[in-house]
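Chain A, query sequence.
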Amino acid sequence: MTETMDAAVPDDYRWLEEDADAAVIAWQTKANDTTVAELAASPNAARVAAAVNATFEDLFAATAPERFGDSWFRKVQVEGRPNLVLTVSPSPTEAGRVLVDPSDHGPAATITICHPSPDGTLLFVGISVDQAVAYRVLSVADGNVVREFPSIAGYALGAWAHDNSGFFYSVLGMKTLADGQVAPQYDVWWQPLSGEAELQPTELDFPFGWPVMSADGRWVSVLANQTAPRPRWIKRTDGGNWIRVLAEDGGPAGSMYKGRFVGDEYWAITDDVSGWCRLVAIPADSFDDRAKWRELIAAREELKLVSITLCGKYVALTTIEGGVMRLKSLDLQGRDLGYLPLPDDGAFGLMGFGFIAAIMSDVVGPDGDSCVFLHSSLTSGCGVYRADLRELTVEELEASAHPLSDRELERLSATGPNGPVTYWVLRKRSTPLDGSAPTIVTGYGGFNAPWIPSYSAMGAAWTELGGLWVHTQLRGGGERDTEFWNQGRMHRKQGTFDDMFAVIEDLHARGFATPERTGVIGSSNGGLLTCAVFTQRPDLIGAAVAQVPVCDLVNLARDPVPLNIVKADYGDPAIAEDAAAMRAYSPVHRVRTGTHYPALLCDAGAADTTCPPWHARKMIAAAEAANSSDRRIRLRVREGAGHNTMTRELFIERDVEELTFFYDELS
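Chain A, predicted structure.
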């Protein structure tokens, strides 16, 4: 009997897991309505709304223009259209014509996936409508539907063939284990443009995998493990068979080999020698003969290698140094040509939060011997830039709409049980650092994902209101070496929370903030972090907001999608040792009756399949019953919202409500 389903685990709120139960929906509706009414009636709501609207930028939807063939594709907000649309244009700076408008399918419809073919003539697109996704291939020339795919449930990522004959994609399936149990497993399929999909013989040793096509279309690889990816299978696209690679270094504990094909070599960022990673070139025709590998860049402390992209005759290499992102140019022999002069210390990517996806996807988009990307920092919103990898110059294509010229930013360090913790404090220059300003601390610390100081619409609005906004880099994240990640994952997950405690204590010790005027906020894995602060150190804060949180680590196995994700970083609740470690910090199970808790708002998406709203329901029910203080414990479940996927209007509504909650509780 595993601890996941052990009847001895106390759980008075198991009934709140059932979305189809009328009593559960009635309970949720009443709790949600109370929250909405209270926040709307707040005397601070109007002031908060003005600040949010003045500084808002949808980082989840912001995208750089990307070149495919002779066309440039970009998701943008167009006046008069309620949702983000996909446009196509002949240059990265022209507005272009609308190719896909999701609102044609409903007022809350959104574009979830868009993959142009390499020559830019076809588009594979997914549109979310009423919590379901419809997939189709469109002709870019006229927008007509070439083919519809109504049955691709659980689609993850795809890769077009260069002759437009079809595409590879991964989808969540199930496999039978040796003991007869059924477990979730991503399968890779080939979908011809005409004909039925074909399952590929690419069995994976990790539950998450996805296909990647080489820039020249001659090789396709299947990568797996979203926290430490490496190719499991490779294949020539001219009719070759799938070849299993790196089998001797397989399994969840193996090294990372994240990279891309450059000609007939696979250039891989790997931590096989040092946690800071080196860059190696692996011949595709003798992948497992390490004697033929070429080391292009040796591992060096304080230099974190992140991502590579082939751009014409050059390779763009993304690094993290000093907690911020930098960009290098390499030639095709692997020679380091130098750094590109970025506009500021911050983050860049193909999306506003593209740096988070850097572990799995490209950070920049090729444009001949150049690359295009969005760049932002805590003191400036997203701008569009093109870097010339030959000349080592950077051109601004589109200026930021939100330069925060009156803000002050300071980089500081706290000391936790595992070592130093870096954090940044953002404020208006007129805001004092004497403990009088309400303070919000945010962090992530998980899944080897870098949490870089980039533009935060909430941070910009909060500092406009006279508060301090604190950005942290916590163990479990991908900002430093592999050991930094390992110190905050699996059985050492507590290391993430200890880092957060250290930052908050340091802010208090410096006199910048006081416990009663300190709040914490985080999203997804950061929502778990927020609830861990709430349950483990309620004395440190006055309020907490957990966005789309995962709060019950014991019963994760009821949902295959989040279970597949968390196995990479928290553990498997079907394994007794993992289950015990997860239960030790599971927020729902850390709530203690009679505790003087701070204010708490759990904010979930009704259509969220990654962190389903039952987590938030159980957390609020448990905390409300146990709380001995007079601070509010509130639930918000947003209709039409998924896992940080929603319309611009819903994002603004969420920012206004959450910052109003903080302003009420901390001011």
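The chain has eleven helices and 37 strands. Residues 22-40 form the longest helix (19 residues).
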